[in-house]
Amino acid sequence: MISGKAKLAGVIGWPVGHSRSPRLHGFWLERFGIDGAYVPLAVKPEDFPDVIRALPLMGFRGANLTVPHKEMAVGLVDVVEPLAWRIGAVNTLVIRDDGSIEGRNTDAFGFLENLRRGAPGWVPASGPAVVVGAGGAARAVCVALQDAGVTEIRLVNRTEERAQALADALGTGMVVPWAERAVALAGAALLVNTTPLGMTGQPPLDLDLTALPPTAVVNDIVYAPLETDLLARARARGNVVVDGLGMLLWQAVPAFEAWFGQRPAVTEELRRYVLA
Ligand code: ATR
Hints:
Blueprint: E1 7-13, H1 21-32, E2 36-42, H2 48-57, E3 60-65, E4 79-80, H3 82-87, E5 92-95, E6 101-104, H4 107-118, E7 129-132, H5 136-148, E8 153-156, H6 160-170, E9 174-176, E10 190-193, E11 217-220, H7 229-236, E12 240-242, H8 245-260, H9 268-275
Parallel strand pairs: 1-2, 1-3, 4-6, 7-8, 7-10, 8-9, 10-11, 11-12
Antiparallel strand pairs: 3-5, 5-6
Helix pairs in contact: 1-8, 4-5, 4-8
The structure holds 2'-monophosphoadenosine-5'-diphosphate.
2'-monophosphoadenosine-5'-diphosphate binds at residues 133-138, 157-159, 162, 194-197.
């Protein structure tokens, strides 16, 4: 139940109907008994600049951004947090007391927190990381790994120029041609899929795992299905696997805290609720 004083936030995307964020934040709002609401906002790209300018005028505390707005937002907000600047994308807007809009990125935090909790034995010094994909998600993953202290990141992408552009932006990273992707797994301590391959309705990621050490951790940022073909194959050969749902849940924690003033917990109950 919300009152006339309810604190407001939401998720802006186009389309937005698939987003699980309203369910996720709604769970926490109810748990804390907060007088607040988190709503889906379907906004076309051409209307996005007007809409973010309207948020403070309507009393919103902030919003999450999803496809296709994350990159455009970097040039539209009043202040870009340094991490969001490096990633080149904003996934969280925080409206400050003076009405100005701050752009943050909590995806890197979400990725790392999920990885650390899902694979407690993994440490950045464990060895090289192989990142498949070179889009926006890969960029957040690579920045997170770089900041955690991973010294060797091997970038594998179907379009090699995009992997090279990512390596250049990071100032580090070794580009491996798509045809050599199976070989890139030799000696790796971590493998992360950042492409949509393996998602329901998409073909699986075509990657032979033979060269991957059995001690390596395998993480897929896809979470529908929870166990992708990649994770099932990795699990079958004895690798520790981490699914992608936790990244979604953990990226929401700092955002919820910024808007609603309470730090929420990520629990098994929440995982089940968000998946249902
Ligand atoms: P996101 O922001 O979610 O990362 P994106 O920027 O569209 O989305 O990036 C999608 C990534 O998945 C890209 O690395 C893309 O490879 P290309 O750069 O070659 O396009 C990768 N990807 C998508 N479909 C793919 C496919 N069928 N085979 C190989 N890679 C694919």
